[in-house]
Request: fold
Amino acid sequence: MSGRYIVRQPIRDAAGNTLGQEILYHGANQAFSSDSSTSSAEFAAANTIYNFLTDNSPKVLKGTLNFMTFTTMLLMKKTPRLFDKSDLVIQIDDAVIIHPLSMHLVQQYVKEGYRVAVNDFQFTPRYLSLLDDIHFIKINGKTATEVTMRNTVEIAHSMNIKCIVTNIDDAKLYQQAVTLGADGLEGPYVADKLTTKAHSSAYIQSNFFQLMVAVTKDEPNVDEIQQMIAADASLSYGLLKMVNSAYFALRHRATTITQAIMTLGLGQLKQWIYLLSASNAENEIEPESEEFLKRSFMRANFCSELMNYAKNMPISKSEAYLMGMFSTLNYLIDAPMDEILEEVPVADEIKAALLRHEGRCGMLYDLVLSYESADWERITKLAEELGIPDNMMTSVYFICMENVDSLWEQLTNPYPQQQPAAETVPQGGAGT
Reply:
């Protein structure tokens, strides 16, 4: 029996900005695709989803626009009211549109201020009659012809409705949707399409990368690390600004490199170097860097947490964290992954996983990638092979999502009265 999974996938505009997230379901809720809106199967599915969202939605689904498909049963259970109006788009499909009671409920939600999207828009009277009440039209890029897509986009824009093309799985379809003027883009290719490289291959010789190498050694040399940071103004500034951010909520500000390292500990320093290295000299996170950084932290957290359940793994939790974190290094650095990993002293099992998807580490890495892409069948297969209970996957995923969202919010909101950290670094040393 397949597991019950919930995952969110990004919806982006042509510039790469995230417009929202689609909440995708699988498992006990397969009645989402059922034509029987009153079946016992859908009632059980709705109950499962309702209970899960009651426990989780306030924590992890705030602060972004969530596109979620609702069946008649979920509408009747008033599930949309679990979300703030500003956080939710109620998606409906043909099964809801042809059901009089469902459409009455949808119209009530619209009057209350909720936004509505129509999945797989069609040029039929029942779809066209909805245009006055909807905010988004979604076109299936895999099944719609170019002419249909063009006409739909034009109609949507003429009525001030935004148009999203879904199921984009290659560059050709992506470019077609952009050319036609789609407001939103969604699908495997969109999720995988990260920004251009933040650094050239010369970055491998930079202080940031050498610091990353130093902190990932089996036995890091603390004196060497302190000296390396103190000798670089941008490293000093970035580290002190980060450690004094609201995330760490220090009672007293750290004013030296030594204090900063003691606050973080070498374990956490491994993690933060990646964030520092993708920031500019003032340690401000650039918009084009944000997406792959968030993905890095999500993969790192997910790999690490799944280690609590995976059987017979040849690496530790902290090594699994680094595997997830380093899986996006090729987006950070304009160099082949094998060349990059040659410079980083990580376990051979991690290199084999990231380069060739081999071994049990490769299976864990593939499980995280499969979850990102909502490959339900492969998720179930890999979880079973690793000994991970499939009923834990979604809970672990949402915990990691909450952790990453919380971390991101705190790191991007430092203490307001902070002085430039470079001024506090003692001249000629790491400080005491």
User: Anything to note?
Assistant: Confidence is low (pLDDT under 50) at residues 28-38, 414-432. The beta strands are 5-12, 18-26, 66-69, 88-92, 115-118, 136-140, 162-166, 184-186, 199-200, 333-334. The longest helix spans residues 390-411.
